[in-house]
Amino acid sequence: MSNEDTLVHECQMEIAGSRYEIHVFLQADGRHVAKTVLASDDVLINDGPSLEEVLAKHRNLLPLAIDSRAMLQSYLSSRRQ
């Protein structure tokens, strides 16, 4: 994200009892970027040609990202035992 990006949409999505913030930015070139911060070192970013398209893509991929991280944590925890 550059300093020229403009925040054009904010919303929340609930997944497995947790709420996740989605921020959509308009870039100088007209593309849209959706961003969700999962942790300080873990950010999900998707881009698309329009607000509607990038938001739909992000809403479809966010649950998958959450599930994949949960599966990784579960796997790592089981290996430590």
Describe the structure.
By secondary structure, this protein is α+β, with helices and mostly antiparallel strands. It has one domain (6-80). Helices cover 37% and strands 42% of the residues. It contains one helix and four strands, in the order ββββα. A four-stranded antiparallel beta sheet has the order 1-2-3-4, with helices on one face. A hairpin with a 2-residue loop joins strand 3 and strand 4 (42-48). The chain is elongated, with a radius of gyration of 15 Å. The model has no long low-confidence stretch (mean pLDDT 94).
Summarize the structure in short.
The chain is of the alpha+beta class.
What tags apply to this protein structure?
single chain; 81 residues; alpha+beta
Number of helices in the DSSP assignment: 1
Number of strands: 4
Q: Regions with pLDDT < 50 over 5+ consecutive residues?
A: none
Helix content bin: 25-40%
Write the layout of secondary structure elements.
Layout: E1 6-15, E2 18-26, E3 32-39, E4 42-48, H1 51-80
Antiparallel strand pairs: 1-2, 2-3, 3-4
